[in-house]
Amino acid sequence: MPDSAPSAVVVGAGIGGLTTALLLARQGRSVTLFERRTALDEAGAGIQLSPNASRVLVALGLGPALARHAVTPDELVVRSLSSGRRLAGMPLGETMRARFGAPYWVIHRADLHTLLLDAARAEPNIRISIGRKVTAVAVEGARARLSVETAGGATEEREAGLVVGADGLWSALRPALGDTRKPVYRGYAAWRTTVPAAEVPDEMAGNITGLWLGRGMHLVHYPVCRGRLVNIVLVARAEGSVNVWNSKAEQADVARHLAQALPALRTLADRPLDWRVWSLFDLPPPRPWGRGPVTLLGDAAHPVLPFLAQGGALAIEDAAVLADALAGEPHDVPSALRAYEAARRPRALRVQQAARENGRIYHMAAPFSLVRNLVMARTSGEAMLARYAWLYGWQPPQHEARRNAA
């Protein structure tokens, strides 16, 4: 990357922002990473890294570190929440790696965030500035002027030739770029906790990802922290929304939603666990979602419901496509950003739509759930893998070019 290529500002030091900063720094760009929090910790419990995301992180050189902290489940097992009956299964583990060329990992979000943060801190081209909230952005030709509020309340002005907003669902950059729409609440909330692996019900034990389907709700669990803990997420219909991420949950709400579950799972509501809750939103991406030398990434651009476990994966994909577009147009940043947005919009829309459809299927009531269960029982694990080949088989654009040239 020539020295004259514009330096970059990345807003948000979450998974998408850190991945973006690493990829841009590896191109030789100088990157400033702004994070409004004063402590760089990561809320949430677990995250699934399907092959479309893990291949990007492996290419960044993070594979060995991730393999030490992540778990590779052997299988996805789908069951009825009320009866416990097995409905379907899909192979993961080595089958997933062999088919798609990259692992399917599950990992504690804090472990993933720490690995990315350590890699960013080791990069001489990355400067991390915490306690800095970007409140406004003004586009002036090929430059952008940022208003930055410090933790002490002072305001600073910064200028950059490339700005990437990776500041999440309630992005400050999105409305500053003219998109004043609010994320749309979809009528569901998610409750999550972690339980020591030795203390989970027998029905949730083992090296698997479990998916339990019920009327108007579902439950997901998988091992994290090298198998020492089990991450549990319960999604159910909820009136009204909780806009604060990671709010403390009421035990009574968990018990009420688990009332339809089989007895072994209902015991989760009787334990003094630290349940957290957040509401579920999405928002179709605008066209384009950036202006001049400014663009958005991840949930700031296209928040997605979690029914495909692809929120973090999409942000990692975004980072790879953005870096590739900028490598092809290192000096014409606006053109590179519009190309990135045009490339990502169809993919984001497809994942959003597929996630909504999965939610509809997961939460069916009788008699539709009986038909769903029959179809699942007749679908082989290989057929399920084939159904999601478009998702898990995604390749970063530079990999596509190499394959086409071969």
UniProtKB/TrEMBL annotation:
One Pfam family in the UniProt entry: FAD_binding_3
SUPFAM superfamilies per UniProt: FAD-linked reductases, C-terminal domain (SSF54373), FAD/NAD(P)-binding domain (SSF51905)
Cofactors demanded by this protein: FAD
Residues annotated as domain FAD-binding: 8-354
Leading EC class: oxidoreductase
UniProt keyword annotations, A-Z: FAD, Flavoprotein, Membrane, Monooxygenase, Oxidoreductase, Transmembrane, Transmembrane helix
UniProt-recorded Gene Ontology molecular function terms: FAD binding; salicylate 1-monooxygenase activity
Superkingdom assignment: Bacteria
NADP recorded as keyword: no
Gene3D superfamilies: FAD/NAD(P)-binding domain (3.50.50.60)
EC numbers on record: 1.14.13.1
Transmembrane segments: 6-25
InterPro entries per record: FAD-bd, FAD-dep_Monooxygenase_BioMet, FAD/NAD-bd_sf
PANTHER family in alphabetical order: GERANYLGERANYL DIPHOSPHATE REDUCTASE (PTHR13789:SF318), MONOOXYGENASE (PTHR13789)
UniProt-recorded name of the protein: Salicylate hydroxylase
Organism: Chelatococcus composti
Phylogenetic placement of the source organism: Bacteria, Pseudomonadati, Pseudomonadota, Alphaproteobacteria, Hyphomicrobiales
